[in-house]
Design brief:
The chain is an alpha/beta fold. The protein has three domains: 254 residues, Rossmann fold (3-Layer(aba) Sandwich); 91 residues, Up-down Bundle (Four Helix Bundle (Hemerythrin (Met), subunit A)), CATH 1.20.120; 51 residues, no CATH class. It has 15 helices and 15 strands. A four-stranded parallel beta sheet has the order 4-3-9-10, sandwiched between helices. Strands 5-6-7-8 form a four-stranded antiparallel beta sheet. The longest helix is centred in the C-terminal third of the chain and has 25 residues.
Amino acid sequence: MIRITNTLSGKKEEFIPLEEGRVKMYVCGPTVYNLIHVGNARAAVVFDSFRRYLEYRGYSVTYVQNFTDIDDKIIKTANEEGISTKRLSDRYVAEYFKDACRLGIEPATFHPRTTDFVNEIIDFISVLQKKGFAYSKNGDVYFDVSAFKSYGALSNRKLSDMRSGARVEINDSKDDPLDFVLWKAAKAGEPSWNSPWKSGRPGWHIECSVMSTTLLGDSFDIHAGGNDLIFPHHENERAQSEAWSGKKWVNYWMHNGMISVKKEKMSKSLGNIFNVREALRVYGPNALRMYLLSKHYRSPMEFSSDRMEEAKASYNRIANAMDEIKRKIGDDTKAVEDSFSKEWRARMNEALDDDFNTPQAFSVIFELVKEALLTDDREHLAKIRALFMEWNYFLGFDFEKKNVNADAFVETLVELRNTARVRNDYEQADAIRKKLKELGVEIRDSSNGSHWRWM
C-alpha cells in the first residue's frame, strides 16, 4: 500500500488512483528565461524518481511537466538581449533538456508550453466569467476569490486573515486585493494575443490549470511542485479549476521542501543560486542526484560543498560495490529469484511506499553494500547486483560507462597523465586531472595504478 502526505489534508493517505492501474500526474516546470538551478532540480529529480517508482510498482503513468514560456521575467530578459520571447524561451527549453538528460531525468509524457494553449486559456477564462467567478476591468480579467467558498484550504489560510494582512495595492481594477489576474491587457512592446476583452496575455496561474485539464482531464491524481508554490500559485490553480469544472480537481498534492544556501532559500531573486550546469561540472550527475534524493522530499535541504562531497562519497560507496561485484563475477548478471531477493525487495518497497522515503531506501541499499563487500559467493553477489540494477530504474544513477568514443578519449587522457607522473611532471598531471574532473571523470590512484570512473 503506497501512502502519500497530501498537502490538502495535511495527512498521510493511502494512494488510490482514480482509475485502477493508471496514474495521472502534473508537475510544475520551470519559467524558461535562464538556466535551471539546483533548487529547480529538486522537484524535477524527486518527482521523476517518484513517477518511475510508480511505474516500477506496476502503474501506467501519464506525466505532464510544463514550461512557462511567457511572463514578465521572460519579456524583460528578451528585451535586454534584443531578441523575441520565443527565441529566448526556445533557447532555455533546449538548455533545460540538456541538464535534465545529464541528470538522468526521463522526458515527461507531455511537455506543454503556455503559448501553445492560449486559445484554450481564453475559453477557460470565458467559462469562469459566465459562471460568475471572474470579472473584467480595463481589459484585465480577475478571479473573484470571494466567489470560491473553499479558497485558502490548500494553504490552510482564511480569507479574513489574508485580507487583514494584505498590502494595500494601487490598483483601481481589482474588487478585492486578493483577487488574482487571469488575463493581462497588453502593454506597449509586449507579445499579445487577441481576446474577447483586450489584446493581452495569460496570467501565471491560469496556464497550469488549462494545460493540466486539457491533457489529464477535469480531475486527476497528483499535482506536485515545490512548497513555495502552495500559495498563491497552487491555491489559485485549485480555485479556478474547481470553479470551472464544479469537480474536485486534484486528489493528492505533493510538495517538496526548499533548498537553502546559508539559511536562505535558493532563488534567482536573491542571487544565491547554483546552476545545475555548474553543479554537474563540479560534482557530476550521480553525486548531484544522490544529494537531491538523500533527504526526504518534504524536508528542507542546505546546499554547500560539504553536503555535495558527502553525497559524492555516498554514491561512490554504491558504485565501488558495483565495481567490486563486477571484478569478482565479471559481466554475469544472472540471478536466482529466491527468498533473499524477495525479502530485500519487500524492504525497499516498504521504505518507498511510505511517502517515498528515499533516506530509508538508501539505508536498505547500504546494508546490501556491506554484504557485497564481505562475500565472494558468485550467486549471492549476482543477486545483490540484480537488485541494485532493478532499483536503479527509479534511482536513476549511471553505473555503466556508455559512450565508447568518450571512454577512448578519457583513456588517452589518463595515459598522458600517467606518463607525466612517471617523468615527475606533476603540474601537467594535475592539469589533466582537473580537465578530467570538468568532464565528469574521477581518477583514483593506488599502488596498482590509476583507475577512473564517470562521476
